[in-house]
Design a protein that fits this description.
Radius of gyration of chain B: 26 Å
Strand order of the largest sheet of chain B: 1-2-5-8-11-14-17-20-23-26-29-32-35-38
Order of helices and strands of chain A: HHHHHHHHHHHH
Helix content of chain A: over 70%
Largest sheet of chain B: 14 strands, parallel
Strand content of chain B: 35-45%
CATH topology of chain B: Pectate Lyase C-like
CATH class of chain B: Mainly Beta
Largest interface: A-B, 38 and 33 residues
Number of helices of chain A: 12
Number of strands of chain A: 0
Oligomer: heterodimer
Distance between the termini of chain A: 21 Å
Number of domains of chain A: 1
Strand content of chain A: under 5%
CATH architecture of chain B: 3 Solenoid
Structural class of chain B: mainly beta
Helix content of chain B: 10-25%
Number of helices of chain B: 4
Chain lengths: 255, 409
């Protein structure tokens, strides 16, 4: 398995897109931090950029890569290797290279500029978000054979999590504003990994406005150590569940 | 002329005739005895010791001087020092453990209808009320350290409590752990200068029906609800610092039903809401710094004719929020760190007007749970489209000449 992973990682790093992704993230992060005089503000700006760009690149790149390597997968399948191993190697390979690209691009400037207690959580969020969206890409691309359709779905999924979900949440908020919806809202927000990570970082950073009654409810949950662990556990589920289903499908799929 | 000189000389001898009365080895045994022995304008010296004499009443103009901080203990039963005469001076005591009573309001040092009294350099610890001024004029409360350990609003009084008084000077005191640090009700023409009021249960400074007062250079920090100035006109607030007032209903400065006042050069840092204005009219709000607050300025729609000039709004989550669409206030030349405009002619003033009210702050005002979506991409999109074309937020909520640089003074 290690050899396949190594091969995939090397193959991806020869890819120009991943190189430009690294450069983009790096340019964005250095740019943000050198333009903002206030590094906490820089962290917030960068958070938005990370939550927008990282999922998009992760999900689209992974889908395209999976479709493009269908012949390679078929070749591997003709060898005496277990299907699970192949799929897992692809998963690990893609994860490693994208996470590495993120760390090289955004991780270094974050470590240099951001206050130490924020930098780790920001980097962690970037890594986890990458992992989640790679996993979602695996899930979406295994269920459609057609490449165009598959990439379309990937982009739609990104759009949904990055934008539409929040709109939906806002809509729910307006509809049910007469009810004590703070706690249910917390559970609904767990349905989007992007929202979940955003809230987690915000409670570390920007606690001021989160105060007030609603803020207190969120803080009681997200702000505590247990809350952070639970949030992370949910994010881990977001990594494993889509991949698990894609793996189950891949094992039985007639390629 | 000669007569006047004679009268003056007579008065001089009268003044010079004032004696000193010592408590302790060199004189009488108790302070009570000393006070009854002393005549007007005598000085009573009290050397160090712990005096548990119940309620001490000062009913003639004497100077009470503590040497090496003698301790007056109220044993949790008595009001310690009741001053019922004018021209009294109390200096250098430690007053502790006053009694508790919600009907009598016993204080460590309480002034009844007294004028020109000076209470200075005392240390007050664990009292119900600290220094209580009632119907006082021209009194000075200076350099006292007032400390209590209150946990509940009902169980503790105020640090410096002033009621129906005039021309007071509250200077350089340090107050902590009381219900309100400094409390003013029906107090006029007074000054509160360079006090530090922190960690009080309710307000650092509580101000009601007190016209024409000034508070300058004070620090209000970590109080339960910040500072409240209410139902008053003609208040001057200069160079104060309002810091770290956190909590649900906590404000750096609450201005409720205030008019014709002047807020200048204050700093509001790390508060849930820096300034909260409700029913505030004709206020000049100038050169203030609002930094790192949840809400820099919460201005309810019932505020009118206020002028906000050259303030700095930096790193607040929301610079401004309001609850309605009516705007009758003027914003001029403020610095907003969220301003994204440009300055082509380089005169330091932004060329396009700035709308400080973001759509999201209006949404949060109406639906607090929407805070969950703070800083999401959806919300930034909404905010930006609203900035370009204000439809839901009042379009006259605007600073036409935003400053490009933080205003330095």
């Amino acid at each position: 398995m290690n050899r396949i992973v190594k091969f995939i990682v090397l193959d991806i790093f020869r890819n120009k897109i991943i190189l430009s992704y690294t450069i983009l993230m790096s340019a964005l992060s250095w740019g943000v931090f050198s333009l903002e005089d206030n590094s906490t503000k820089g962290v917030l700006t960068l958070l938005n950029l990370i939550l927008l760009n990282v999922p998009l690149v992760s999900i689209v790149f992974s889908s395209i890569y999976l479709y493009n390597s269908s012949e390679f997968i078929e070749l591997l399948l003709s060898q005496p290797i277990r299907r699970k191993k192949i799929w897992l190697s692809l998963f690990v390979g893609l994860q490693t290279s994208l996470i590495l690209a993120f760390l090289l691009g955004a991780g270094i400037p974050i470590l240099v500029y951001a206050p130490i207690n924020y930098s780790f959580i920001l980097i962690l969020i970037g890594v986890v978000i990458t992992a989640v969206f790679v996993s979602i890409a695996f899930f979406s691309s295994i269920y459609t054979r057609d490449k165009t359709k598959g990439i379309g779905i990937a982009i739609l999924l990104w759009l949904f999590f990055a934008l539409l979900f929040d709109g939906l949440l806002l809509f729910l908020l307006f509809q049910f504003s007469e009810y004590p919806i703070e706690v249910p809202m917390m559970f609904v927000s767990a349905l989007s990994p992007i929202d979940l990570s955003r809230i987690m970082i915000l409670l570390q950073l920007d606690v001021s406005a989160m105060m007030g009654y609603t803020g207190a409810v969120f803080r009681q949950f997200f702000g505590t150590r247990i809350g952070i662990y639970i949030t992370f556990a949910v994010l881990m589920l977001w990594i494993f569940i889509p991949f698990y289903f894609s793996l189950r499908k891949f094992k039985k799929k007639d390629l | 002329m000669r007569l006047r000189a004679i009268v003056f000389l007579f008065l001089l001898t009268f003044k010079l005739s004032a004696k000193t009365v010592w408590v302790g080895k060199m004189g009488v045994k108790t302070i009570k005895e000393a006070l009854s022995k002393a005549v007007a304008f005598d000085t009573v010296y009290v050397p160090y010791g712990i005096y548990k004499e119940g309620n001490l009443v000062v009913n003639k103009p004497v100077c009470l001087l503590g040497i090496n901080q003698p301790v007056l203990d109220g044993q949790k039963k008595f009001e310690v020092l009741s001053i019922r005469a004018s021209d009294v001076k109390v200096n250098g005591f430690k007053v502790q453990h006053s009694g508790f009573g919600t009907l009598e309001d016993p204080g460590a040092i309480k002034l009844y209808n007294a004028h020109r009294v000076e209470v200075s350099n005392n240390e007050l610890e664990d009292n119900f009320f600290g220094i209580y001024v009632q119907y006082g004029t021209n009194c000075v409360v200076k350099n006292n350290k007032i400390k209590a350990y209150g946990t509940e609003e009902q169980q503790i009084g105020n640090g410096i409590h002033c009621w129906k008084s005039d021309s007071l000077q509250i200077i350089g005191n340090q107050i902590s752990g009381h219900r309100d640090g400094i409390y003013f009700e029906f107090v006029t023409h007074s000054i509160i200068w360079r006090n530090i009021s922190k960690k009080n249960i309710r307000y650092g400074l509580h101000f009601m029906f007190s016209n024409n007062d000034a508070y300058i250079g004070n620090v209000f920090k970590e109080n339960g609800a910040g500072v409240a100035v209410m139902f008053t006109k003609g208040v001057t607030m200069i160079n104060n610092v309002f810091e770290e007032n956190w909590g649900d209903a906590s404000y750096g400065l609450l201005l409720k039903e205030i008019s014709d006042s002047y807020v200048f050069g204050n700093k509001f840092i790390h508060n849930t809401a820096g300034v909260y204005m409700e029913g505030t009219n004709r206020i000049h709000f100038e050169y203030n710094v609002l930094e790192y607050n949840g809400w820099g300025l919460k201005m309810q729609a019932n505020c009118m004719d206020n002028e906000l000039l050259e303030n700095n709004f930096v790193a607040n989550t929301f610079d401004i929020s309001t609850n309605g669409t009516l705007v009758l206030n003027i914003f001029t030349g403020n610095y907003w760190d969220k301003y994204e405009g440009y300055d082509l002619n380089r005169d330091g003033t932004g060329d396009i007007p700035y709308h400080p009210l973001s759509l999201f702050s209006v949404i949060v005002e109406n639906y607090p749970s929407a805070m969950l979506l703070y800083r999401s991409i959806m919300v930034s999109l909404l905010d930006h489209s609203e900035k370009i074309m204000p439809t839901l937020t009042p379009d006259n909520f605007v600073d036409n000449t935003p400053s490009m640089h933080a205003i330095k003074r």
